Amino acid sequence: MAFVYINAKKFLKGEIENPESLQNASQEYHGTMSNYYTIRIKNRQTGTFHTVRVPEDEYILHSLEAQGLELPFSCRNGACTTCAVRVLSGEVYQPEAMGLSPELRQQGYALLCVSYARSDMLVETQDEDEVYELQFGRYFAKGRVRFGLPLDED
User: Fold this and answer.
1) What is the pLDDT of residues 18-67, one digit of tens each?
2) What are residue 106's phi and psi, to 5 degrees?
3) pTM above threshold 0.85
4) Is 53 within 8 Å of 36 (Cβ atoms)?
5) 56 near 115, Cβ under 8 Å?
6) pLDDT tens digit string along 116-125?
7) What is the 3-state secondary structure (H, E, C) of the chain?
8) Rounded CA gap, 130 and 127, in Å?
């Protein structure tokens, strides 16, 4: 089975009209041949499912955006948890995901902005605050909280 990958925004705007222009658009976007993997995404926030194919040599989030799929993101460099997903099956490579502890990575969390697919995958989007709490919650709320201003008013 042959797959053709196109920029969905160009297709929807009518810039891609026939099979020849489809092939040109695919080559323009991907440039070289690499392995592709199917990623099934369950978006918990919207209740929708998406199935996309991504190359192994491109960040997953970047590939999804080029195909017209919009998912939450913020920093684009693996430092926050906005684009976090839970990998339910499959393998991901994320050497630059400094926003996730080794423990969370072992539990199957990944940051799509700095992740590469290494197999077909099933992932589920996560709530940013939920993952942030898992990552950093143990460091906060340990001391006493005092209400009011820190300085006396004159």
Assistant:
1) 545 444 444 445 455 689 999 999 999 899 999 999 999 999 999 999 99
2) -65, -25
3) no
4) yes
5) no
6) 999 999 999 9
7) CCCCCCCHHHHHCCCCCCHHHHHHHHHHHHCCCCCEEEEEEEECCCCEEEEEEEECCCCHHHHHHHCCCCCCCCCCCCCCCCCEEEEEECCEECCCCCCCCHHHHHCCEEEHHHCEECCCEEEEECCHHHHHHHHHHHHCCCCCCCCCCCCCCC
8) 5
